[in-house]
Design brief:
- By secondary structure, this protein is an alpha+beta fold.
- It has three domains: 46 residues, 2-Layer Sandwich (Uridine Diphospho-n-acetylenolpyruvylglucosamine Reductase, domain 2); 115 residues, Uridine Diphospho-n-acetylenolpyruvylglucosamine Reductase, domain 3, CATH 3.30.465.10; 107 residues, CO dehydrogenase flavoprotein, C-terminal domain (Enolase-like, domain 1, 2-Layer Sandwich).
- It has eleven helices and 14 strands.
- Strand 6 and strand 7 form a beta hairpin.
- The radius of gyration is 19 Å and the shape is globular.
Length: 288
């Protein structure tokens, strides 16, 4: 186990990025994922431990042009209670309401949930169907630069992302939904809030004349990463949401996922859940 040689608590983004440029750094925010994983031996501390909780400008929810910008240090409770989130992307608030316990929500951050990169991360599926992007900052040449990446492309495996060693996740950006936009989230677990998802489903799109367009479907806990369900989307795109379309989409969803057996469920059970719950969610959208 690596011994922590230095503890840093930067106050500004510039200072934090400068520390990241100096070498191997473990980033600490809420610590609700990091601390249990280090104690279990799944993650080892790097020589520098950097606590970013006091970095200015990384918290809060604001309207930024045609997008909603949520700072990476915004806690799950703050996202859940935010009036802009409730107005523009209520499906994200719904997912946060099924996130762990009150104590974890009060400490855990949306940036931490994203960077933990769990296939079952509760905010990841709704963010993917909302076409969210991550905002990454770095300081490669002495000045702060940022880049954005679609969240659906950010994950490379359990606990792994495309964030470079010298980058810091600063925010998640969600384009403001179009008129007629609908979105639904479903999480299945023994205790839906406290337990890790057995499966989760997100469905979103613009409803016009009984048909979905700009369709987005994503699944959690059925692959090494949260996944966009392109075949299920194709089965829905532009089609009237009648029973034939709903059944075809539910069948596509079941055939598209490739889950594993684990302590929470068998692969077969997960595939059946995906089929049945996708069908139920689409029925609700059609009847709304």
């Amino acid at each position: 186990m690596t011994t922590i040689e230095r503890y840093a608590a930067p106050k500004s983004l510039d200072e934090a990025l400068g520390i990241l440029q100096q070498g191997e750094v473990t980033i600490l925010a809420g610590g609700t994922d990091l601390m249990p994983q280090t104690r279990a031996g799944r993650i080892a501390f790097k020589p520098t431990l950097m606590n970013i909780r006091d970095v200015a400008g990384l918290s809060g929810v604001v309207l930024d042009g045609d997008a909603l910008r949520i700072g990476a240090l915004t806690t799950i409770t703050e996202v859940l209670d935010d009036p802009l989130v409730k107005e523009f992307v209520p499906v994200l608030a719904e997912a946060c309401d099924h996130f762990a316990s009150d104590q974890i929500r009060n400490a855990g951050t949306i940036g931490g949930n994203i960077n933990n990169a769990s296939p079952a991360g509760d905010t990841l599926v709704p963010l993917i169907v909302l076409d969210a992007e991550v905002e990454l900052a770095s300081k490669p040449n002495g000045s702060v630069t940022t880049r954005c990446m679609p969240l659906a492309e950010y994950f490379t495996g359990p606990g792994r992302t495309r964030r470079a060693a010298g980058e810091l996740l600063t925010a998640v950006r969600i384009p403001l939904p179009k008129p007629g936009h609908v979105a639904r989230f479903y999480k299945f677990g023994t205790r839906p809030a406290l337990d890790i998802s057995t499966i989760s489903i997100g469905i979103a799109g613009v409803m016009r004349d009984g048909a979905l367009s700009d369709t987005r479907v994503a699944f959690g806990a059925v692959a090494p990463t949260p996944v966009r369900a392109k075949q299920t989307e194709a089965a829905l795109e532009g089609r009237r949401l009648d029973q034939s379309t709903i059944e075809a989409a539910a069948n596509a969803a079941r055939d598209e996922v490739n889950p594993i057996d684990d302590v929470r469920a068998t692969a077969w059970y997960r595939k059946e859940l995906i089929h049945n719950m996708t069908k139920r969610m689409l029925d609700h959208v059609a009847q709304a």
